[in-house]
Amino acid sequence: MGTTEVPQFQPLTQDLRTNVCVVGAGIAGLTTAYLLARAGRAVVVIDDGPIGGGETSRTTAHLTAALDDRYYNIERLHGEEGARIAAESHMSAIHRIESIASMEDIDCEFERVEGYLFLGGKETRKDLERELDATHRAGLTDTQLVDRIPFSFWDSGPALRFPRQATVHPVKYLKGLARAILRDGGRIYTGVHAEKIEDGEPGKITTTGGHVISADNIVVCTNVPVNDWLIIHSKQAAYRTYVIAGRVPKGAVPHGLYWDTPDPYHYIRVEAGEDSSAHELDYEMLIVGGEDHKTGQAQDTEDRFVRLEQWTRERFPMVERIDYRWSGQVIEPVDYMAYIGKNPGADQHIWIATGDSGNGMTHGTIAGIILNELVQGRKHQWAKLYDPSRVRLKATPEYVKENVNVAEQLKDYFTKGELDDIASIKPGEGGVIGRGRGKIAVYRDDLGNIHQCSAVCPHLYCIVHWNDTERTWDCPCHGSRFDPYGSVVNGPAIVGLSPVSRKRQKEPNESPQ
Ligand SMILES: Cc1cc2nc3c(=O)[nH]c(=O)nc-3n(C[C@H](O)[C@H](O)[C@H](O)COP(=O)(O)OP(=O)(O)OC[C@H]3O[C@@H](n4cnc5c(N)ncnc54)[C@H](O)[C@@H]3O)c2cc1C
Ligand code: FES
């Protein structure tokens, strides 16, 4: 976001009729829209932010087939054929991004690099050997076990080397896709929130502005589906992840992708230095991520950045100052593969792409490739592996664990709230306060004004928690997030927190602290 500008698109001012309406302009939505517009379909894309304003602008954009859930796990749940398709589809997604960038002349810094998985926690060389064998069975026959990452400044110990992986500037890539969609007759509207999505012939999307888009096919690419109530959300869980980017002298860290083995793991890459006007800089950015936790279930968000920096400085002493830090959301499916295809249940014309795991750039591209075929009434050989209606019985323990965790969050109804009174909330902070039998989400802005809304998440009624780092209300059940005033930021909620009082008010007898 800091190194490129995104173009403005028109707001929606009237009702529309189209063949395909894609909701969400991230990697999944724009890849789907691009391929369908190329195929001659009439495509409309809407997004309630700018293009790429969701997780795709927060990604670290490792393009890799070295899946973070490990091939031996994928093989256990989906069989050898499933693991083979997983490897084939992710490698194809990297090639597809490369070929689209080249064909459309998108200046998005696509670069082929090697990926290295190295030991970090309790895992041993045996675990790497196990993954090596599984990757070979899955068809990634050029994966190798090497003695160390080729760093001169730090001996990582044994690592798995994955050739022909890649990096890309995600927002620049999306800008190129958007340009091509418009050229092929597609229409893109931003600042347009879908508030209701209904199946039918045609299906209908009602926007917050009251306009209706009628479409033969609706593709919901909102990262988590905002049209589904429970089925999909019981099969995946939302996690927050944290990233820092620090300056390193040019050439000091070889370009590549690096991951360690613990859960949560660290993920590392280098980004060539460029400012927003594309001036080359004499330093590069080392981008390091990790410290994941379930959304809405950690209070120590600031400490996570501190730990990340400490971990980075211990291993990369050449890091100068930290220029950027941010956090984002990843969605973990219980059986490790994304859900791409027809929305489960009775819907006939609604398609979804979700469950990106830490590999959402390739999963989002796979979504485009599969949905392009399915929406046009054709089959695709990867569709069965990614079918949103699938049930993998061997994933039951993970399914039970995530849903027990959700049930445990209901305890918040019986506790008295995070804070005793509004006076204890400092400017720029928020907290949940018990009021009668209800719970109120109270935010005090930088000027000391108090804003209140219901703390009950409109999705399935869990109690939201304050996120200090992002200044958002985060739901611990399925990861919905809301800005300090209650507007929805991340689904599955499709509407915001209910207002307690619309007025921005100053509490009587209170002064800002
Ligand atoms: C910090 C971080 C690091 C990551 N690193 C990697 C990595 O190295 N490699 C990798 O492959 N993946 C990575 N991922 C995952 C990957 O970035 C994401 O999975 C991917 O970008 C998701 O793309 P998407 O199109 O599904 O969703 P998004 O990019 O979130 O797009 C969804 C869009 O839908 C819009 N929207 C939502 N609701 C509505 C509504 N009701 N009406 C209208 N619009 C709506 C949003 O505004 C948004 O623009 C990372 C993610 C994070 C957060
Ligand atoms: S996201 Fe499901 S209850 Fe809040």
What is the end-to-end distance? Answer: 33 Å
**What percent strand?**
25-35%
In which range does the helix fraction lie?
10-25%
Instruction: Please compute the radius of gyration using only Cα atoms.
Output: 23 Å
Mean pLDDT: 92
Shape: globular
| Alpha-beta classification | alpha+beta
Uncertain runs are: 502-513
Number of strands: 24
The biggest beta sheet reads: 9 strands, mixed
Bound molecules: flavin-adenine dinucleotide, FE2/S2 (inorganic) cluster
Tally of individual helices: 8
What does this structure look like?
This protein has helices at 27-38, 71-103, 125-137, 170-183, 301-315, 360-375, 383-386, 396-408; strands spanning 16-23, 43-47, 62-63, 111-118, 144-146, 159-167, 187-190, 194-198, 203-207, 212-220, 236-249, 257-260, 267-271, 283-294, 322-333, 339-342, 350-354, 429-435, 438-444, 450-454, 465-467, 472-474, 481-482, 488-490. With 513 residues, the protein is an alpha+beta fold. The strands form 4 sheets. Strands 3, 4, 5, 6, 11, 12, 13, 14 and 15 form a 9-stranded mixed β-sheet that branches. Strands 1, 2, 7, 8, 9, 10, 16 and 17 form an 8-stranded mixed β-sheet that branches. Strands 21-22-23-24 form a 4-stranded antiparallel β-sheet, with no helix packed on it. Helix 1 (27-38) runs parallel beside helix 6 (360-375) and helix 2 crosses helix 6 (360-375). The longest helix is centred in the first third of the chain and has 33 residues, at 71-103. It is globular. Mean pLDDT is 92; it is low at 502-513. It binds flavin-adenine dinucleotide and FE2/S2 (inorganic) cluster (FES). The site of FE2/S2 (inorganic) cluster (FES) has 12 residues, from loops.
